[in-house]
Amino acid sequence: MVLELTHDVLSLTGGSARVVRPTKTDGLSGIKFVCFPSVGDSARNYSELIAKLAGRGLWACAVEPPGYGLYAEHSPPSFDLLMGHWAPAVCAAIEGPKVLVGHGSGAALASAGLSVEALINAADLRGLVLLDWTPSGRDLPPLASFLPQSDEELDTLLGRTWFAPPNFGPGARRMLLTRLNENGARGHAESFDPTGWAHHLDDYRGTTLFVVGRDDRMVTVEHMREGASERDGGRLVVIDECGHYPHREQPEALAKVLAAFAEESEDD
C-alpha cells in the first residue's frame, strides 16, 4: 500500500516552511520525527523514509526551509536567521513529543530547535539525531562544496557522496546544476558557520545519535565517531552500503535505526 502524503506550507517567524507528512495519522505513534534537510536537498526526498517509518507505526515529517527545494522562487535566508527564528518556530508549531533529525547542514537547524524553551527540559523532546554532520566542524568540507558548478564537479561529488551514484541523463544534469546554483543557493551555503551552531547544544542533556553512511567520503565515519565521543550521551551508528544520504540510499535501514531510537526514548 502506498502511503498518501500531504504537502503543507506553514507561515512562521523567519519565513515559510514546506512540510511533507502522512495524510492519515491513525495508528501512528505519538512520537514525531521532525527532519531538516541539508542545503541542496528537499523535503520531497524524505518521502520514502516517512513511508518506511509509517510502516513501523511512527509519524515523521520533513520540513523544508524557505528557498529550498525544486520549486523555490526566492533565495534562502541566512543561516543566522534560520537558526535564530525559523527553526525554533518550526519546533514550536509541531506539537507533541518529538525527535529532531538534521541531515548535513540541517543538523544545525535541528540543533537550533533545541532553543525552544518548552523543549529543553520537558518530555516533549525525546532526542536529537544528526545525519552525516557533526558539531565539532573540524576538517569538514565547506558547505558550498555540495553545490557543484560543472559536470566534472558533479561527477566528483556523486562519487564521494553515494555508495552507488545515480546515473543522471543530460537534461536531468542540467536541471540539477541549475537548481543547485540559482536563487542565491551558494551565498546561502557560504553563510553557514560549520562550528558556530554548536552552542545550541550547550543546554541539551539528552541522547544525541550520530548516523553516518560507511561510504560517505565527504563526512566520514571518523568525523562522526569523533563528534559522538565528544558528547555526553553521544552514540554512533554506521549504515552499510550507504554514502552521505541515508534517507535516500538506505531508507529502510535508517527507519530501523530511528524506530529503535524511538523505542528507547519511550522506555527512558
From TrEMBL:
<protein>
    <recommendedName>
        <fullName>AB hydrolase-1 domain-containing protein</fullName>
    </recommendedName>
</protein>
<dbReference type="InterPro" id="IPR000073">
    <property type="entry name" value="AB_hydrolase_1"/>
</dbReference>
<feature type="domain" description="AB hydrolase-1">
    <location>
        <begin position="34"/>
        <end position="256"/>
    </location>
</feature>
<dbReference type="InterPro" id="IPR029058">
    <property type="entry name" value="AB_hydrolase_fold"/>
</dbReference>
<dbReference type="Pfam" id="PF12697">
    <property type="entry name" value="Abhydrolase_6"/>
</dbReference>
